[in-house]
Every structure is written in structure tokens, then in C-alpha cells.
Amino acid sequence: MKDFIIPDDRDMGTPATKGAPVTLSIDGFDVTVPEGTSVMRAAAEAGIQVPKLCATDSLEAFGSCRLCVVEIEGRRGTPASCTTPVTPGMVVRTQSDKVRKIRNGVMELYISDHPLDCLTCAANGDCELQDMAGMVGLRDVRYTAPEAGTLANHFEARNTSGESNPEWLPKDDSNPYFTYDPSKCIVCSRCVRACEEVQGTFALTIEGRGFDSRVRAGTPADDFLTSDCVSCGACVQACPTATLQEKSVIEMGTPNRSVVTTCAYCGVGCSFKAELNGDQLVRMVPYKHGKANRGHSCVKGRFAYGYANHKDRILNPMIRDSIDEPWREVGWDEALSFAADRMRGLQDRYGQKSIGVITSSRCTNEETFLVQKLARAVFRNNNTDTCARVCHSPTGYGLGQTYGTSAGTQDFDSVQYADVVIVIGANPTDGHPVFASRLKKRLREGAKLIVIDPRRIDLVKSAHIAASHHLPLRPGTNVAVVSALAHVIVTEGLFDEAYIRERCDWEEFQEYAAFISDARHSPEATEMLTGVPSEELRKAARLYATGGNGAIYYGLGVTEHSQGSTTVMGIANLAMLTGNVGHEGAGVNPLRGQNNVQGSCDMGSFPHELPGYRHVKLPEVRKIFEDAWGVEIDPEPGLRIPNMLDAAVDGSFKGLYCQGEDILQSDPDTKHVAAGLAAMECVIVHDLFLNETANYAHVFLPGSTFLEKDGTFTNAERRINRVRKVMAPKNGYGDWEVTQLLANAMGAGWNYTHPAQIMEEIAATTPSFANVDYALLEEKGSVQWPCNEANPEGTPMMHVDGFVRGKGRFMITEYVPTDEKTGPRFPLLLTTGRILSQYNVGAQTRRTENVVWHEQDLLEIHPHDAETRGVKDGDWVKLASRSGETALRATLTDRVSPGVVYTTFHHPDTQANVITTDYSDWATNCPEYKVTAVQISPSNGPTDWQEDYAEQAARSRRILPAAE
């Protein structure tokens, strides 16, 4: 496989523009660039570098450093090239004696206020100030540095270390990942502008004047840790000196090689350059050509990769006969033979369908494809499922029914053309922060926002943005709210009749219109049920229907309900009603939770579908795979995860191979999951750490991180991104190799030698991937499926000329209340979600410095509910439901409405899912995490169940010393 050739990575100084071609002359060379291009970028296009410090192509031109001055024929003075747009026939001189003298003087002033410790500076060799000083030919400085001024004294008074430094200001080391050294700040404002323009947090400012000017994070009482800084790294990336510097670079030195790969956290699918010294990873830098992130990142992808080297990581296979015994380290051959013999023995005793697999949404497409193939071609059953069952399975069903395909309609770039955005059941700033930054930028440009969420998320109101409408619905009433929006659009005649007649089934629409026009769906009729003021809902509906391009983004707050599939279909109805599918700035877009949850669905992880969302009952589909695999495929759908657990408790399901998922922590009704796992006779966990599920495992196969493997991830916009091996697997094998070894131990005879071969098999059997191969991905960087003969370079936008299913289908969305009800014993409703610094069950992020921001799960409770229960901020409280109870600390906030409480699920010592019920979506069995009736009461600490669980977990993780 040829190496990826990184495209032109030069910093062009200012962003690219689109416009009519303009030709000008720069230093005697004719250059043609789009209208609106800066002189600086035009010069860069011609291969002429103009010195710069405040300019970078990820930010709008600023024009403060005065280092980029040029002469333009016919104009007075020496304008800044970064802020001067090109004009036809313009004649520019970038290297005249006059501009060289000005630049030299400007650079001399910068250096006079900068420590000359280049040899020992962490940015030595990677410092733009150093580079520009050489570029302008500065060889001497006539000025002496000013003495520490009042601001320096102010900083020294705040120096918590107690050290005194009379010459320079003290460093701020509060952030776990980077340092701020104000003595090296040249006040270029790039960090401040990056925080504003790219991230949208507005956490940084410039304080002071003249030589006392410095960057400030937050108020004078703040440092980088306590300020509003979200540690996305945009400021560090923008800094041209060592003022803001990664601690890893300070410790390990400047990296000397890089590999482009894809982040393994959320479904945004950010591209990164992994920068290394030898095989030692020094830092992850967001890749400017990444089409999902466009050079931006969040704290997880940018910094939280340290789990790959954590001491908890298991690198050797382990086995045990019983879960009561300690683990015993063995070689790969013994572990795989042990696992294969057990699984075959179970099938011999209990039947062919007594074992199954769970694929991982954190592993690559190729690895996931092999795991479901293991079930179908080796176990010879369809007992395969994935974590998408418990998050986005209603997306697949709902969008499949209405549009004909189980994925979002747009790419992330589309948001920049949206005029009205609905965010429902999602918290992008915490769950999908890079997309959230792009959304916030569009909102600052004037787009309108409607937030539908029980909780006041940051998007409702934060720096320089505010939602036009926040509909704080009662948990469990999504369908009623979406139907009320549709009711307003239909009854007030706001629907797009021409679009519906052309693109949708008109007769079905008339039936739907009659249904939705019923008075019981009106905002006034549903107000008491949903808690959403009727007039506010009507205004929101009118805004979405009449405000221009309307885009809908939704998350687990939509899907993880007993009516998750119904809500997805209701959202699809809204978009069709208003003609908002098939063009830029519109669409219906699920924000996928994990890095490859889309890919795990695409690869056939569900028990009823083969790769490409084709039902296993169809003989023509089975034949494709039977011919490719040389085996007969069972036409009967297999067991879903909940069915596997039920069957295990009943005694008919006995063995499980679980790759890269922690169902004991992530799935609902923890006690039932534990009972199911305990009833199995062979549980194989294939993971990085001894997770909670491994408490009940008999075989542990060590996994590899995304840094140690080749393959592809598919993100929330259907984008297939390459994952490239940055370092050798610490356990000796990539995850695809481990699955192949297990399959071969069971007699499969697989002989893949590289993931590229697996992708060839995927392409040969899956129509939406028909044109995908690694050569195409190396050439294009990434593509979005469907990628086939009709769309050889992928499909950024779906349903442009018509829906995949032909005519768009309006679905009847009757509201059916959940069986989970509040009452005197359990009067509150619990809903759950994520937080920015942590990811999913926390297995990765809890093993990084991210714990400084979230060291434990907290229960958010409204002050009114807390007061009536005698609960104060920070108190231990018992959280009890009909399923179980746990204890955690309370935090009082009006982010939640009275009657609603909220918590995250990142820490296993809380085990929030011991509270959640086994109610699930009517169509897909997606659990109803978001609606649980609970009661809160004061507590003295962890419950008996938590203490018993911790004791059992400690026993299950014992590892015998290695034999001498």
C-alpha cells in the first residue's frame, strides 16, 4: 500500500475565496486567483512567501503585525498584503528595499521584547518568529527589553508557585495539556481570533497596552483551567511562538515525521496529523485538509490519546475457567485454542444458535465486517449486533422507511448554508464539539436556531449566540412536540406543495395531512402534556417553515426512547413538508455518538441485515455472500443484544464474542445485563482494558488502539476516512488480525494479509461501497457513500433529484406514551447525556488528564426539587428507580426544569444504567435511556449495591503473577 502523500500544507496566510478570476503581477510574475483573494495569498499561490506573524489561513486577515507590507504600483504607502484584496492588473512588489527596511525594523521591535532563549526553547525549529527573523535578515537588535512593568508585577503577585521572576512573567501551567508563557507572547492575537472565529468560545482577550499587552484567559482571577477555555487546542495551533505550547513537545522535543489518520472518538470523524519522534507520538494536530473538521479539533481528539500507553492496558491474552478465578496470562495460541474449543463445544451441546457476537462502533469498518462475518460464515448464524442497537438503530429504521436510506442527508459543510437550524435531542457542544463550532459560526453570521431539549444546553445561550426558541419539552414527549410543529405547518398552509407533489407520494401526504391536522395535535392541546408553551411552539414552526434553508440535527435524545423510530419519522416528515431535503443548508442529519457507529451499521452488524442494509431473508442478497464466502447463510434473523441477554438468562444462549464494547456499563438495566453475562459459559472480551463486561469474561484478547491499525471509519456524514497505522500494535496484532486468528482457530481458513483486502471484499459485496478502495481514498482523502459507478467520487448530498426509495413517504406518527410513568414513589424524570471532556463509558478518557474536568458523574437537579428534599449543592444523594438505585453527588442548576434530573454515564462507580429500565423502542429495541421515573433522597455515600459491585469488580480483575 503506497504512503499517503500529504497535499500542499503551506500556510497561505489568509483563507481561500471563491469568485471570478483576477490576474495581477507580483514581483514580475503574472498570477491568476479568485476575486477577493488577498495579495498575500496570491503571492503564496505564485510561490512567493511574504513574511507574516499575525496572518494564518485558518483565520480572517487581521493586519496588526505590519510584517507583510508590500508596495503596490499607483498606491501610496505600504499596505499590509494580508488585508489588501487583489484587483485586475495590480502590480505588486514584495521585496523592494523600502519594504525590506520596514520589515527589518518591525521584526527588531518584536525581538526586543522577546526572550532570546531559542536554543533551549520548546519551539526551537518550529517557531514562526524565529523563521521570520531569518527571512527578513535580522542580525542585530538595537533596543533593550523594557523592565518588567506593572502588568508583570500583577502577574507575579498571582504566581501560585511562589517563585519570583523579575525579568519575565510566570508561566500558567494550570491546563494539563499545554502551557502559557506570557513572556514569549508577541500579541499577534492569533490565539484570541482562533478562540473566536474557529472555536466560538470567546475565552481569550488581550489586556494591557504597549509592552504590557498580553493574552488573558477569562477574568484576572482565572487561569487557563478555570476560565471558559474548552482546551480545543485552536489557540495552541494558532500560536506562532512558544507562548502556547503542548507539554508533550516540551517533554519529548519537536516531532520530525507525521502520519495522517482519523480520530477515534465521536462521529464527527476529524482528521489529524499524528506527529512523532521515531515511534513516539508527540502530538495530534488537526489536519487542515480534513473535510469533516477543516483543521479544527476538540479536547478529546487533540489531547486525550494518552490512554494508548496507560498502565491499565492489557497487552497479553488471558483466560480462566470460571469468573470466580483470577486471570491467567497465556500465549496467543493457547488463548485462541481455549476460546475456539469452548465456543465449538457450546454449539455442540446447545445448538448452532447458542453463541453470537457484538461488533464495535470504535473499531474499523474492516474489523467490524470480519466480526459479523465470523457470526455468519463461521458460527453459521445471524446472532450479531452492535452498540448502534442502543443508540441510533431508530435512525436506520426511521430514515429507511421515509427516505429509503439509513443515514444522514448532508455533509457538515452544508451547515454554512443553513438559515434555520433545529437541534433536537442533541448537545453538540459537548457531544460533537467540532461540528458545534461550525454551527456556532453560522449562527454568528445570522442563522436562526431552534433547540428542542429538556435541558438548557449551551447552544440555547452562550457567547455571541442565542437560540431564537428553546422548547423545553418533558422527557418522553418528542413525538407530540414534532407532531405539533407539523400541525402548525400543515394547518397554516406553510408546507411546500410543489415539492411534495414532485418528490413525495401525494396520496400518502393527504392521508398524513388529515391525521396531523386533527386538533389533538395542536400546540394548545399538547401543551399540558409536553410542557412547551403553545405560542412559542407555533413561532418555532413558522420560523422553520418560512425562514429559508432549514436543517435538522438530532441525537440520542431523539432515538433513545420507546418511540425513537416514530420521532425520526416525524423529523423526516417535517423536512419533506417544507422541501428541506436534497439541497444545501437543509436535510435531516443524525449526530452519531461513536467514531464508527455509522460504519458498524453499514457493515451488516444487525442480526436481520447483511452489509449494505439488505435483509438476510432475501435469497438474492444471501447468494452474493454465499458465493464470496463459500458457505450457506442462515435466512433467519438472529438475536439482538437484549434478546441475547434474555436467552442467556433462560439458558439457551451460552457464548459471546464481544469486540470493543462494554455492554455492562453502556446497556440499560445493569443488573439484567450482569445476570445474562453470568449465565453464559464462555464470554470473550476483545478490548484494551479489563472493562466492566470483562468482570464476567472467560477469555480476554488484548485489542489495539486506532493509532496501531490500518482501516477506515465512516462518520456521521457517511464519510469514509482512512485510519493509518501510526505505530506498531503493542499487543502484537491489529484487531482484524485477532478476529481472523479466532476464526481460523475455529476452522475458517481466512488468509487476509492487509485491511485493504477486506475493503476489496466489502466493495465487491456492498453496492454503496462498490467504488471504494484504498487507492481512491489516498487520492481523494475521503469519500461519502454511496460511492459506485453512478457516483464514482462519492455523494456529499443525498436525495438531490429524488429519494433513494423513489417517492418520499410520509409516515403516520401517533403519540403513544411510554409505559414508564412517574408517580408518588418516583415523581421525577431522569434523562442522561454526555459531557465535553469525557466519551461514552469513559474507558479511554478516564485514563487521560481529562478527568481534571470531570472526575465523577454528578446529578443535576433543579433548586426547587432539591429544596423540597433537603438536598444542598455537593451533597450525596440516592437516585432510585423501579430497576435499582445508586448514589452520586448533586449539583443544583436551573439548566433542568423542575421535575427533571440529569446525569452522565462516564464513570462505572456510578453505574447510572442500574437505574434505567428495560423499556425500548417499539421497532428496534433501542433502550429508553432518556425517560426513567426516579426519586431523590439524601444519602451518606455509595449504596450497598455500589460497594458490592466494586468488590466483585476488584475480585474479577485479579491477575496471577506470570510464571517464572
TrEMBL record:
Keywords in alphabetical order: 2Fe-2S, 4Fe-4S, Iron, Iron-sulfur, Metal-binding, Oxidoreductase, Repeat
An annotated GO cellular component: oxidoreductase complex
A GO BP entry: respiratory electron transport chain
Domain 2Fe-2S ferredoxin-type, first and last residues per copy: 20-98
Keyword Nucleotide-binding annotated: no
Record-annotated 4Fe-4S His(Cys)3-ligated-type domain positions: 98-137
EC number(s) from the headed UniProt entry: 1.2.1.2
Domain 4Fe-4S ferredoxin-type: 176-207, 220-249
Positions of the 4Fe-4S Mo/W bis-MGD-type domain: 256-312
InterPro entries named in the record: 2Fe-2S_ferredoxin-like_sf (IPR036010), 2Fe-2S_ferredoxin-type (IPR001041), 4Fe4S_Fe-S-bd (IPR017896), 4Fe4S_Fe_S_CS (IPR017900), Asp_de-COase-like_dom_sf (IPR009010), Formate_Dh-H_N (IPR041924), Formate_DH_asu (IPR006478), MoPterin_dinucl-bd_dom (IPR006657)
UniProt superkingdom: Bacteria
Single GO MF descriptor: 4 iron, 4 sulfur cluster binding
UniProt cross-references to Pfam families, sorted A to Z: Fer2_4 (PF13510), Fer4_7 (PF12838), Molybdop_Fe4S4 (PF04879), Molybdopterin (PF00384), Molydop_binding (PF01568), NADH-G_4Fe-4S_3 (PF10588)
NCBIfam families: Fdh-alpha
Family: Belongs to the complex I 75 kDa subunit family.
PANTHER family with a match to the protein in the record: FORMATE DEHYDROGENASE H (PTHR43105:SF14), RESPIRATORY NITRATE REDUCTASE (PTHR43105)
Protein name (database record): Putative formate dehydrogenase
